[in-house]
Design brief:
binds zinc ion; four-stranded antiparallel beta sheet; 78 residues; globular
């Protein structure tokens, strides 16, 4: 029997948890995308920091997270 038969096809898995820029916990930030209301939210379940933005059908969790980081940087450089 070939081992190759048992290998599942590799699916690129998109990250939905991220490190928190505030408390620096790994994978403590979760992303929720609500396409019914066209909004998205990231929230850290450790320090409760969160961020909301608009979402569209192509929005990925990583996009929301990146926007949050951008917003943090913008605040820090003001
Ligand atoms: Zn945090």
């Amino acid at each position: 029997m070939s081992k190759l038969l048992a290998q599942p096809k590799k699916q690129p898995k998109l990250d939905t948890t991220f490190p928190c820029p505030f408390c620096n916990h790994r994978d403590s930030v979760d992303c929720f995308i609500d396409l019914e209301h066209n909004c998205a939210r990231v929230v850290c379940f450790v320090c409760q920091e969160n961020f909301s933005t608009k979402a569209h059908p192509l929005t990925e969790p990583v996009d929301v997270y990146a926007e949050w980081i951008d917003a943090c940087v913008a605040v820090n450089t003001q």
